[in-house]
Amino acid sequence: MLQQQQLLQREEKTITLKGSARIVVEFFNFHMEKKYGLNLLVTSHEGVQAYLSTILSQLDKWIVAKKISTLVLVISSKNTREVLERWSFDVQLENSSVTNEKEPTTTAAKPTSSLPSPPPAPSRTEKQTTQEIAAVMRQITASVTFLPMLDEPCTFNVLAYTEKDAVVPAEWIDSDPRLIERNAEQVKLRSFSTSVHRVDGLVAYKYVGDQL
What we know:
Layout: E1 2-5, H1 17-28, E2 33-35, E3 38-40, H2 46-64, E4 68-77, E5 83-93, H3 126-142, E6 154-162, E7 172-174, E8 184-193, E9 197-206
Antiparallel strand pairs: 1-6, 1-7, 2-3, 4-5, 4-6, 5-9, 8-9
Helix pairs in contact: 1-2
């Protein structure tokens, strides 16, 4: 189900489900500070901060509950509503056997299958994940070298692809995927993994020809 928001451990410790959710959510939270060894630009607009805080709080709940597959940031023209950029991040569960450390666990017989189970993702430390996130952030920062200049007033919306049985707050409504309709170009971004979750990024943008 696609939802749209209507409001404009220590290093050697392995990462748990809730720890993984916190890392993934923190990646989507952009504000001005030194992070991942980089100087990152952030917004100081209180309205935008409140909007993002609401989104990130819900994102954390969906990730922990294993109910979200993709988060999308759509940048569109304020006047025409045409989609100019679409940043998509797939959130894949790499280790489905990991549970919330506060949740009780139960044991049940597994159904027989002729297909072998995929091997679990290797354990990772938070430092390793932070290094991968830093590489992603560098790539996003460098995207100004190929993305067309946005020379008109723009707005942004956040879309979430959730499971059908996900609990969705009233502030979120069903939405179309907000794809770029014409002259779309795509660039795959680097990925990062927590050993519990893997996040793969992709930016699509409207190609407008050579710009001076």
